[in-house]
Amino acid sequence: MxxxxxxxxxxxxxxxxxxxxxxxxxxxxxxxxxxxQFENDRIANTDRHYTHGTRLSWTxxxxxxxxxxxxxxxxxxxxxxxxxxxxxxxxxxxxxYTPENIAETALIPNDRPYAGWLYAGxxxxxxxxxxxxxxxxDSLNTLELDIGIVGPQSYAEDVQKMVHQHIxxxxxxxxxxxxxxxxxxxxxxxxxxxxxxxxxxxxxSLDLLPHAxxxxxNIDTHARFGGMIRAGYNxxxxxxxxxxxxxxxxxxxxxxxxxxxFYVFAGAEQRLIGRNIFLDGNTFAHSHSVNxxxxxxxxxxxxxxxxxxxxxxxxxxxxTKEFKGQLQPDKFGAFSLSFNL
Length: 341
Description:
Strand content: over 45%
Number of strands: 12
Number of domains: 1
Oligomer: single chain
CATH topology: Lipocalin
Radius of gyration: 20 Å
Helix content: 10-25%
CATH class: Mainly Beta
Mean pLDDT: 86
Shape: globular
Distance between the termini: 38 Å
Structural class: mainly beta
C-alpha cells in the first residue's frame, strides 16, 4: 500500500518533469549542477534530535520557458510578475531524528521520537532580474514537491547503527519505538528577494536576501519568514547556500566557470509550525509523540567559497527548542559541495 502511494505520486509529478529533456534543447551548453549536502550535529559536538541529514541533487541550467506540460505553473509559482528564467531540480535525501539519550532501550516519553525520512524532491525555480538599477530587487520563486516515507522503510535505523558502529560511538538502542511506516507528501512555496546594497565592480559586495514561504503536507506544515545578509569578494550571483529542508535553501547551482570568490553570511528565520510528524507522531496510527512548540527560530552563520566550477559552503545552525520539555536548543553543522557539470 505504502509503495503504491509513493509510485503514484512520483508518476504524477514526473509527468511535469518528463519534458525536461526537450526543454533542455533550448540551452546550447551546460548540463546543470550537482550538489552533495551533509548535515550532522556531531560537528557541533552534540548527538540528539535532528542528528543527521544527507541530500543529493541536480539543478538544471537556466531556460527561458517552463516545461511544455506545465503551462499552468507560471501563474501558480509567480502570479504577481510572470516571466523570467527557469530551472528544474531533482533530489534524494534522508533525515534522521532521535531523542537525546540514545543509549536508553525503553521508550522516553518526554523526549522526541526516533524517526527517519527518506524522500525524493522535485523543484521548479523562477528567477527574475527586472533591472540592473540599484533600486530594483531580484527575486527567486521556488515550488518544491517532496514524496517519501517515514518509518522503518526509511532505513534510518540501519544507517545510524552502521555509522555509529564504524566511528565507535554510543549505539542507538531505542529504534524499536520509532514512528511507523507512513507515506509522506509535502508541497513548499518560497519567495526570496535579493538586493545588492553595495557593489565595487562586482569585486567587493554586500547584499540582502529576505524571504517568506509556506509548506503544507502530512510531514511538515508551517509558515516562515526571515532573511540573510552576505558580504564577499566576487560573490556568486546566486541566492545563498543550499541547505536541507526545513532550512531555507538556495537552488544549489554554479554558473561560474573560471572565477574565484567567497562570501560570509548570517541569517535568521522564524517558523510558525502547524504540523511536524517528527514531533506529532504518525498521522493515521498510534505512535510516540511530544507536545511541539508553535514557534521555532533558526539562526545561522557560515561561509561559501567559489573555485571556478565548484562551490563549497559551511553553515552553523542554532535552532530554538522545538517541543515542551526540551532541555536546550539544538545546533548542527551543514556542508555542501556544488559543481557545474
